[in-house]
């Protein structure tokens, strides 16, 4: 199993990185404001699976192969960035109504929410860089890799979920204020701008 001392270092380190505002936390807050926490859970599931995929790839060495082919990685960044910008544009065009109609939650595609979370997670270059640089050192070659990876993934998934839940819950509270009058329009524009800026940062960062 994983070394206890190493785990004691990994937990607070990853928690600090996870709770810091970033792409996935911004998405959780934005969706929490627009569609509520319950439906945002579908995005969280996609994000958690995306983060888990990146973590596993980092440990198995797939990520290091990607770094040897910068063109492929650049394409991944552009696709992810363009997707987030697309979300931001839709929010701006929503004007005086919610970008996702909360009055008809059944009309919101769960697959779309899942995809948003998954793509945001796997298209984040800083997420890849973090996993590549931090995660492998906590894996000891003297012990079986699978049990160690499961423990680290458990920490990662739990920390990410709690962080996104905190952001989404805060977003839902903000929605109670922002949904009055023209505040809905400004909420969409602010949230759309955030997603657009994140997309631009992903492409050119």
From TrEMBL:
Transmembrane segments: 6-29, 41-66, 72-92, 145-165, 186-204
Subcellular location: Cell membrane
Stored Pfam families: LysE (PF01810)
Topology relative to the membrane: Multi-pass membrane protein
Protein name per Swiss-Prot or TrEMBL: LysE family translocator
Keywords attached to this entry: Cell membrane, Membrane, Transmembrane, Transmembrane helix
Source organism superkingdom: Bacteria
